[in-house]
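Hey team,

Filing this mostly as a record. A colleague (T.K.) asked me to run one chain through the structure pipeline before their review meeting, and I want the input and output archived in the tracker in case anyone asks later how it was produced. No errors, nothing strange. Just documentation.

Input sequence:
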Amino acid sequence: MAESVSPVPSGHADFTRDRRVLVLTLLAVVTGAASTVLAKALLWLINALTNLCLNLRFDSSPATAAHYRIGLFILVVPALGGLIVGCMARYGSPQIRGHGIPEALEAILIGQSRMDPKVTLLKPLSSAISIGTGGPFGAEGPIIVTGGALGSLFAQRFMLSAAERKTLLVAGAAGGMAAVFAAPVSAVLLAIEVLLFEWRPRSLIPVAASAATAAALRLALIGPAPVFPAKLPEALPAAAMLPAIEVGLVAGLAAMVLTQLVYGVEDAFRKLPLHWMWWPVLGGIVVGVGGLICPRALGVGYDTIDDLLRGSLGIRLLLVLLVTKAVIWSVALGSGTSGGVLAPLLIIGGALGAAESRFFAVGTSGTWALVGMAAAMGGTLRAPLTAVLFALEATHAAGFLPVLLVGCTAAYAVTVILMPHSILTEKVARRGLHLSMEYGVDPLGRALVHDVMDSDPPMVRASVTVAELASRLAGGDPALSRAGLSVVDDDDRLLGILTRRDLFRVLGTGRAEEVTVLDACTRDPEVAYPDERLPDALARMMARDIGRLPVVSRDDPRRLVGYLGRANVIAARQQFLAEETVPGQGWIRRP
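Output structure:
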């Protein structure tokens, strides 16, 4: 005998569907293309300024700050760059200070995804000046913020909702990262783990389209991938898992120290009797001193990342690089100058991993440098999946997936357990905004009305007078304990709904003896169906300011089958919470 299958109601679907996602996707493609052009301009400007300010030549070819030619003027040039950035921030837009992602988060959380149009121009310009004069930053953070500002500005020219503006803002940010690092998949994951706060088709599709567009256009404007073409082993043996955990744990602790150091420096600057415009000058002086000690700590440092992956740096240089980069980056970022966090994290994590490789019997220095890079990124940003895929896309070392996953997860576990906020969210939290980085499906979001409704709905006959009903309520009749009563005929078929407000209104007229509940109730009330999604029913309740809904059969809209009120929803929420917190039966007591 064939099994009977119930038809699925038309309103049910695995995802929310909206054809406006097609329009958003088209706008996101344009945003991704524009972000790539901005990325190209930013990289060109960084190279040109680095060559001019540190290497004393007019050239826009790929530049390195590790072999600067200005001698002791390195003590002055970063400070001058800090002065220019400070003036741009004070008289242009304060949003260009720092790495900018907290400002993007704040724009999403409380600014309805509107960013200052001046950021689109001033952020890349200030970052290029900061990096070009020796600042120990990467280009990826500024271009993420610049792409986000471009997407926000683009969205503001159209009649888009705040949620749609957020999508375009994040699409621009993802496009910027994909353009700089040729890493479109990790750019999308970064958007999800750090900026979007959701995983929905209306956001994921446009953001992915923007990142893919940027990655494709990058091939023509910037060059092919991978960004760090180091020759690494094809795979690692199972014995590499334990060292990967150790590298991840150390990287997680380092992420905690770096976060505390950055904000500790920022707190120290706040105590100075100086306007914040001058702080980058002081930070620049520290950068200059660091440049004298370890020139490799200056600038973007992509060449240093290459050397770390090749394993060509000695242990003494690794330790000096690690300490110097960490100190000057923390001080410069805490001073409020403009720059990114990703490239410095890669260098610091890579130096840690390469130094630790001396104690491992498996893998090379470059092997553990890569794991350290990814772990430092995943732990500090609290984006472990982004870090894993970024390492794979940037190096094409697909055989490293298991150890990268283990290392990044270990670092992520350390920072989640030991730190209340990440380097990205600490500033937002200090401004009084709570940000939850956990993503999950709301249990009520997947519930149907029949899962939470009262199957024995409170009802009253239409012929009952208001006075009779008031007397029964005063007597504490448990069948009438709800705030809303369904008015039914002699066959229990729904005629209307009577609320306490309706009852008191009639009692106030003095005609309660002659008015029936049918006369006092709301006829043809808003109803819900048992197979309807609970969020849809709640949305109608909120839109119409209704506290309860009679539940009727979809086949017979007059047949009353249940009652849905606020108390039902609260009780269901309490039940779901109990499922997460109340321990079950077993013979081992949980800690």
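Quick notes for T.K.: The two ends are 51 Å apart (CA to CA). Residues 58 and 507 are 89 Å apart (CA to CA).
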